[in-house]
Structures
1.
Amino acid sequence: MLWKEKYKIGVDLIDQQHQELFRRVTDFIVTVRGQGDWEERLAKVKETLAFMQEYVVTHFADEEAYQAGINYPGLAAHQQIHDNFKREIDEYAKKFAATGFDEDLVQSFGGKLMAWLINHVAREDQRIGKFVRQEVR
């Protein structure tokens, strides 16, 4: 799994949600890069797309509510990053609907998910954890 303990920000709900996101994206990447009939692997692709469209909305809402509750100064910028990512997920969904689940497009989607998740959690979300730790002192 792509998850690393260093990604924890110290907020149980958020850390658990991040771990679930990493687990799902890891499963997706393994499936897409796997062997076998593309049509058989396609079910996992569709499942992951549906999950991402739903779960990121829930996760982002929880994360933003937490940030608001602690008066996190970077909330507005963080919301914008979340909104941009939700739009990107929706754009992929539209492309899949229009062109089908072409293997190259699916590979692109997987790479985007993996890169965004790692970069966002390792950089942006770590700022939340740092803010919380400074406030506790």
2.
Amino acid sequence: MDAFERLLWWLFAGSTGAFTRLQVLKAIKEQPRNAQQLSQLLHLDYTTVRHHLGVLEKNHLVQTEGDRYGKLYFLSEVMEANWLKLEEIVSKTRGTKNERSKF
């Protein structure tokens, strides 16, 4: 297991907030979005979304473009390259392969 995979385990299987971070990441994968758009889409408090975006950005899973208030979040290249690893981790933590299709 490489360092990035250990990081994914920690962020998405071993810590509080894993489900919220996963929802944020999935929404960004679908299309780049800013914090306000994510807050509205996911029905989460704006400060909660900003917190999780900060965690994802600090750990190089997302990157940004634009200015402070309108900046858009994108998946980082390393996250895009390791998306299948994330799916595997999520499927293992949920228990069955059938639940993986819900990812």
3.
Amino acid sequence: MNTLTRREFLRLSAIAGAGAVLAACAPSAAPTSAPPAATSAPAAPTAVPPTAAPVKIVLCTGKDSSGSTPKLVSQFNASRKDIQIDYQEMPSSSTEQHDKYATVFAAKDSSIDIVAADIPWAPEFASAGWLLELEKMPGYEDIRKEYFEGPLLGTTYKDHVYAIPWFNNAGVLFWRKDILDKAGVKPPETFEELVEVCLKLQKPPDLHGFVWQGFQYEGLVCDWLEFLWGMGGDFWDPKTGKVLVDSPEGVASVQLMVDMIHKHKISPESVLTFKETESYNVYLAQNAIFVRGWPSFYVTANKDESKVKGVTGIKAMVRAPGKKPGACLGTWNLAVSKFTKYPQQAWEVVKFFSTTDAQKTRAMMGGNPPARKAVYNDKEVLAQFPHFGALGEVMNTALPRPVTPAYPQISVEAIQVNLTAALTRKNTAQEAVKNMKAKTEEILAKVK
């Protein structure tokens, strides 16, 4: 087999394969009936000298059913005479968005200035030379100190920053407060406690202990990484690129998922067919005590028509004793095209969307966890979304998936296939992580 050049790999992953990997961390679904918007308008960005005519900055994002992005665009445009945002809403599919941007950027087309980018896109697009380095822009350091470390790691590739976190997403554990309270049981903190609580309180097939995303897709990778990190392990060393997954923690994390299905039976075998929607539906139907999910599900669980309204708790994922909980990031970022004709003006737009007031507006209208730390302590935000208090702690330890342009291929060919082989008992957990390591090293060798 011929060795792929990096350019050939990027072209193939951008147009053919990478988009499918990213579906699991698509933008959080907004409530169908949006909550009231924040009353305070975001402060206008620092003015820049006006030009003879306003500079048009094209901003492309996925579909926003909450209405927060159009509202913020209107506020910016009303506050500026020198810059106007031309907001272009893309399809809701992250795959379609990814492929559109890859096509435009590969042609060095300047028709798009700013894109909303899923977290794995930053290293992929940056390695291709498609994104502007932002750490050199005025005011970046002031923004950086207001953000969580994990999301910033996901926007940094080879010591350069290629995007600014726009809104966060990280895996959490939801549970039935009414069931645990009635039994006098506290929410579990460790993997062992989770198994014990499920065995004590579940009544399958009517009430399963724990449901999650076990289908062979990106969501499975996110779930497994949270177990791996929660055991103190890691997939690789981001500084050296050394693959670390073939470790005692790697084996234990895979074995735990296998045992939850086949040994402890706290998760039904049907979990192997579950993505987010299927696992959420089991919980919403009152057929599960715990479900792993993304923060936006809390809004869904508390809609008026929900059977679990008011009885759903949210907390960090369980962990091994003495270890930090793992939370896989699904953060969305704002990135500036390397081919923009107006880099300074595009940066002004990005800075505007990063302000505390803009982040607050988006959080209150869409229920999306903000990128700025301060918004998690805002009284108005907490009054509307009390669970944001717990999410602030989750974000402190949340981590990105491996930051490499090869990640889409690693996810599909090294991680997903070997996890599924273990979960279906075609291979052992030890064989799974050994094969993950070997395939990952093979992929990395071809794209250097």
